[in-house]
Amino acid sequence: MNLEELKNIKLFLFDMDGLLLDTETLHVKLWHKIFDKYHLNEHEDLITKVIGTSGDQARMIAKEMTRDPDFLNRHEEEKALMLKDYLKNHDLKQKKGAEKLLSYLYEHDYDIILVSSTFEEGVERALAKGHLSHWIDKKVCGDHVKYSKPNPDIYLRALSLYNHQAEECVVLEDSKNGIKAAN
């Protein structure tokens, strides 16, 4: 992107998990605990394959990889309880530079939209536990679209909902699925 193109930028679209907040490390750690507990380590590569996807897409990927249609369903509730317990006593760690960048964009009147495959309830909780809620008032979450990342629907909805064109935006993503969706 050159300086001339940068002059036309009005909007920054941010992923959350792994980009603004270090939630992915926590989710991976919790999944490893469950995989160890139930001796499921032969499916460990599943963890990295589902990063950046919605719950429905993660279940579909898990079904394809394990040939078990209920593989994730059996363990998601336990992981969710582990996460809830963790968040009772801990904040989420911000990624280096996240607040500084959000502050700069906010102070320079750029539009900021959070675009996350995580459902809205989880987004709200994570932003609060990561102390970033005050920077983000616009968001499109995984439960706002039929198909989440790597499908582009979530980004298209964000542009449509907040009246922007693709040429006016910069997308910040950290996962393969997010980058595919953004493209």
Short note summarizing the structure:
With 183 residues, the chain is of the alpha/beta class. The chain has helices at 3-6, 23-37, 45-49, 55-66, 71-89, 98-107, 120-129, 153-161, 176-182, and strands at 11-14, 111-116, 138-141, 169-172.
Entry keywords:
single chain, alpha/beta, 9 helices, 4 strands, globular
Structure description:
With 183 residues, the chain is an alpha/beta fold. It has nine helices and four strands, in the order H-E-H-H-H-H-H-E-H-E-H-E-H. It has helices spanning 3-6, 23-37, 45-49, 55-66, 71-89, 98-107, 120-129, 153-161, 176-182; strands at 11-14, 111-116, 138-141, 169-172.
Distance between the termini: 15 Å
Q: What does the largest sheet look like?
A: 4 strands, parallel
Going across the biggest sheet, name each strand in turn. Answer: 3-2-1-4
SS elements, strand count = 4
User: Mean of residue pLDDT?
Assistant: 90
Helix segment count?
Answer: 9
Uncertain stretches? none
- Helices and strands: which structural class? alpha/beta
What's the helix-strand series?
Answer: HEHHHHHEHEHEH
* Computed CA radius of gyration, to the nearest angstrom: 17 Å
